[in-house]
Amino acid sequence: MNIFITGGTTGIGLSLAKLYLEEGHRVGICARHLEKFPIEIRNKYKLLKCYEVNVVNREELRAAIIDFANGDLDIIIANAGRSVGAKSKTPQFSVANDIIDINVKGVLNTFECALELMLPKKKGHLVATASVAGFMGLPGAGAYSASKAAVLKLCESYSIDLKRMGINVTAIAPGFIDTPLTQQNNHKMPFLMSSDKAARLIKRALEKKKVLYVFPFRMKIIVAILEKMPRSWYRFLMGLKFLNYSSED
Ligand SMILES: NC(=O)c1ccc[n+]([C@@H]2O[C@H](COP(=O)([O-])OP(=O)(O)OC[C@H]3O[C@@H](n4cnc5c(N)ncnc54)[C@H](OP(=O)(O)O)[C@@H]3O)[C@@H](O)[C@H]2O)c1
Q: What are the sequence ranges of the domains in the chain?
């Protein structure tokens, strides 16, 4: 298969790339700083192509995907994303804009470029890495939660629209995965999972063509409860100091 992964130099994207390469698939990855990608993996796999591309730049991204696919693209994983970094109670609007650009417009750009190749063939699989953060407004992470909620809804809509055109759509909603993105967090991260394990679970969900995959299972239960509870209870819970979720500023 031909599989393209945005944000494939570290964390979940890197683990997915390694997994698919080990199985003998052709893999393309992109990120803004390719030097982060482990050189030994770059040297080991001839079926790997790397592109220094910002997903916010649609033309750059399109050129990379078209060059990689050579007319045939089976799976695209819109995985590139950024989080808030240091959480703050005062909205950081420049950070918020950047998060929306990368996490939402980046996914739109990725899907648009992939569909250009997939629609004429009436086959393909669009995948986006959303987050459990998309199911509720997390304190100190409003833009991140909003961006991931947008990705969840985009995928849900597209999964209906594109089914009759032979295109599968999957939204992946992980809990806490141990990657450079979460290594900056100073709050509790229940059920933290390695990125290699996360990649194995994601790959299995994609094989089953799941439209939405929320994991780990214990996090899925907690999120379902938080999402359904009265919002005043949720706000009270998130304000509790012992959770250490919101910052002090
Ligand atoms: N880790 C978690 O607990 C967790 C949980 C839920 C969802 N997620 C989501 O999973 C995805 C992957 O996150 P991760 O935890 O694996 O983080 P990560 O290790 O920081 O990886 C992020 C990847 O995206 C790339 N990237 C960021 N901005 C980009 C841009 N504008 N254009 C192209 N590439 C870009 C990064 O490389 P460059 O910086 O060099 O561009 C890197 O390769 C993200 O969408 C994240 O929101 C993560």
A: 2-243
